[in-house]
Amino acid sequence: MPANYNESTAQAVLDQNYADEFTMPNKDLYPHMWLWDSSFHAIGLRHSNPKRALNEIKILLRSQWPNGMIPHMTFTQRDTKRIHGYKIWKSHVCDDCVVGLKTSAITQPPVIAEAFELVVEKLPKKEQRAAIEKYLPQLIRYHEWLYRERDPNSTGRVVIIHPWESGMDNNPALIENLRQCFPITWWEKQFLKNPFIKAFYHARRKDIRLTSPEERTHSDVNWMLGKLIARYRRKLYKLDDILKDNNSFVVECILFNTALARSNASLSRLAKKTQTTLTSELQESIKKTENSFDDYWNDQDQKFYDRDWHSQTHIRIPTISNLLPLAAKKLPKQQADSIKEVLGSQGYSTKWRTATTPQDTQWFSSVRYWQGPVWVNTNWFLIKGLENNGAKKEATKLKRQTIKLVEQSGMWEYFSPLDGSGRGIHDFSWTAALYLDLKN
Ligand code: GLC
Asked: 267, 113 in Cβ contact below 8 A?
């Protein structure tokens, strides 16, 4: 098939989704600001417009809470009727919230420090130091918050408290875990089956109006995701109370910790450049995270798995998370080889790869959000991981395939791993941004 899309199409997507100060993931379906999306946008934009890329970081940091957290979403005035919009969060109930902005009360994979380092590299030499001195303290405060609030046992394995914090909103391992710790009741099931309720609920779900229901979360999952927020809101988002509650979702997620490990490395390099000393607590936590990846390794299955924090056990459902430690650091050869083997297996290496849930499992769907489709950002992490683990050839191959997929199908949110067709929403910013990054 001929290449129909190119760098100018990608740039046009980023321009059309620009909203005065930052880039929205998509102006129709996602007219707000998301933490890891904007970080990816900055990574792509730095090649053509480092100033705009730096601004993405600056605007993200404006949402930082006084306690250091950077929220996963900052709401704009557009689309105030969103079903999981600000009304469900009411983050102002939390003492620590930022004043003057409407944000969610959870975070998302901490890609921001890595994005910032990559942006700084593209700034004119004489502006680099000033930029680091200006923004590094806020990034350090974010990482300190992650360890203070989200590493309750000081293991270096930071926890997430909602599947949305993983960025992989409908990842089967996380959703199955949610079903177990916070099951949907019989009454709720009946309620959601009622045709009037169903019609009303569906009408308020913009995602299934703009895409197709089989590409999005099931209504019962969507319901649970919202109900979990309401439960946390009633606890005023206090982590101690959330952890004490056995119905809370508390997971040590590989993708989240991989992003953290990568950003920790960026933070340390940036600090060194400006002779900034990180506190000994932070340095120690950084080391612990780097050394913690063995804890995700399951000897019996010879795989890495996310961990349930309450029971301290592996969640033995295979997803793209199995492969991501590759991107966290240079792994021992045996582990790196085993990941490369799984990556090359039929489950993940479909015609268009990499499937986010392996096709030879009961959880696979070629079209449903995070349950199989290829996402450009997870491929981007894998490419970095292969490069860092001495597999340059495989990295180049995956890079070429990812570029080809986008050039052939377009700037879709995600893609069927079976036929490469675009799924979700079209004109999706991080696909465009990371495509530009892979091309440069
Ligand atoms: C979807 C993705 C999430 C992303 C958001 C905005 O919910 O699962 O990772 O941040 O869209 O693009």
From this structure: yes
Going by C-alpha positions, the residue among 439, 430, 429, 440 that lies closest to residue 378 is 430
- How many angstroms does the Cα of residue 130 sit away from the middle of ligand 1? 32
- In ligand 1, which atom is closest to the CA atom of 72? 10
Of ligand 1's listed atoms, the one at least distance from the Cα of 370 is 8
Task: Please give the distance, rounded to the nearest whole angstrom, from the Cα atom of residue 421 to the centre of ligand 1.
Answer: 19
Confidence of residue 81 (pLDDT cuts 50, 70, 90): confident
Q: What is the pLDDT of residues 247-292, one digit of tens each?
A: 999 999 999 999 999 999 999 999 999 999 999 999 999 999 999 9
| Ligand 1 pocket test target in 75, 83, 169, 423 with most atoms within 8 Å of CB | 169
Burial class (CB in 10 A: 0-12, 13-18, 19+), 105: buried
pLDDT digits 0-9 by tens, 142-180: 999 999 999 999 999 999 999 999 999 999 999 999 999
* Torsion angles phi and psi, residue 307, rounded to 5: -120, 140
The CA distance from 315 to 176, in Å, is: 9
Give the closest residue to 371 by CA, choosing from 229, 244, 214.
214
- Packing angle, helices 429-439 and 35-45, rounded to 10: 40
Report which of 27, 36, 37 is spatially closest to residue 79, judged by C-alpha positions.
Answer: 27
In angstroms, what CA-CA distances link 366 with 309, 347, 375, 422, 434?
30, 12, 12, 11, 22
Name all residues whose Cβ lies below 6 A of ligand 1.
Answer: 25, 30, 34, 36-37, 167, 169
Helix 172-181 / helix 219-234 crossing angle, nearest 10 deg:
60
Position 352, amino acid: W
Calpha distance 224→345 (Å, rounded): 33
CA dihedral 110, 113, 117, 122 (to 10 degrees): 70
Atom 7 of ligand 1 has which residue's CA nearest to it? Answer: 169
CA of 86 to the centre of ligand 1 (A): 16
